[in-house]
Amino acid sequence: MRLDEIRIEDLEVFANHGVFHEENVLGQKFLVTAVLCTDTREAGKTDELAASVHYGEVSAFIEKYLREHTFKLLERAAECLAEELLLSLPRLRKIQLEIKKPWAPVKLPLKTVSVSIERGWHTAYIALGSNMGDREAYLNNAVKSLDSRKDCRVKKVSKFIETPPYGVTDQADFLNGCVKLETLLYPRELLDELHRIEQEAGRERVVRWGPRTLDLDIIFYDDIIWEEEDLCIPHVEMHKRKFVLEPLAEIAPYKRHPVYGKTVLEMNSGLSV
């Protein structure tokens, strides 16, 4: 369902952003347009401000943040401001942000220069597995590591299930589970974070499908289809793996595969034990 929009247009801010020293000292005018993407249905039904995003408070936040921080690049200013707004406003799901710099020192006639970005919360599903050491501790610590990041929010965690090894069968049984995660990280940034957590748990990539202290895979990321050599979303093997589908069906039974068109429940029901 498409989100509703609250628009703040050309908010005037005097701040000290720029590559040149004089810009950081003397300051100049910036114009900020913010489109706040949220669900206004409750506010529209109740007429209660608390059920919406307060554009007056957001305007004050933008002015204060840009005035109190100094950045060389508009790109950096926009990125940091968007993230702070998304972290600070529980009802804000996505933001379209444009920062204009009408006094840009380019020594040529122009109306303005600007940077426009769109940022928001994304929903990812992560598969967890371990068959070495204290398996449950490894899985629980991985969940805690993700939830400890300010740009990640763990929303649901499945029960952990015992499963036989896949691929290389001459090894100990696995403990597997799935996590529903809201994140501001992009897919490759999320992959890097999962690899960091695996490494922290002592993961060694020696034998493919071999024993491991911790295995973390991106199964879904919104409804995107991403195909690169070291990252495929949805996970290319997920529809064949009972140890992924069973815990995933517990927390997202009706999540639909963007390629095959089947729900997680349907894919899981179609696999033998």
From TrEMBL:
Gene3D superfamilies: 3.30.1130.10, 7,8-Dihydro-6-hydroxymethylpterin-pyrophosphokinase HPPK (3.30.70.560). Its EC number is 4.1.2.25, 2.7.6.3. The keyword Kinase applies. Pathway: Cofactor biosynthesis; tetrahydrofolate biosynthesis; 2-amino-4-hydroxy-6-hydroxymethyl-7,8-dihydropteridine diphosphate from 7,8-dihydroneopterin triphosphate: step 4/4; Cofactor biosynthesis; tetrahydrofolate biosynthesis; 2-amino-4-hydroxy-6-hydroxymethyl-7,8-dihydropteridine diphosphate from 7,8-dihydroneopterin triphosphate: step 3/4. It catalyses: 7,8-dihydroneopterin = 6-hydroxymethyl-7,8-dihydropterin + glycolaldehyde; 6-hydroxymethyl-7,8-dihydropterin + ATP = (7,8-dihydropterin-6-yl)methyl diphosphate + AMP + H(+). GO terms for molecular function: 2-amino-4-hydroxy-6-hydroxymethyldihydropteridine diphosphokinase activity; ATP binding; dihydroneopterin aldolase activity; kinase activity. Keywords: ATP-binding, Folate biosynthesis, Kinase, Lyase, Nucleotide-binding, Transferase. Residues 208-219 form the 7,8-dihydro-6-hydroxymethylpterin-pyrophosphokinase domain. SUPFAM superfamilies: 6-hydroxymethyl-7,8-dihydropterin pyrophosphokinase, HPPK, Tetrahydrobiopterin biosynthesis enzymes-like. It comes from the Bacteria. It comes from Candidatus Mediterraneibacter stercoravium. Pfam families: FolB (PF02152), HPPK (PF01288). In the N-terminal section; belongs to the DHNA family. This is Bifunctional folate synthesis protein. Catalyzes the conversion of 7,8-dihydroneopterin to 6-hydroxymethyl-7,8-dihydropterin.
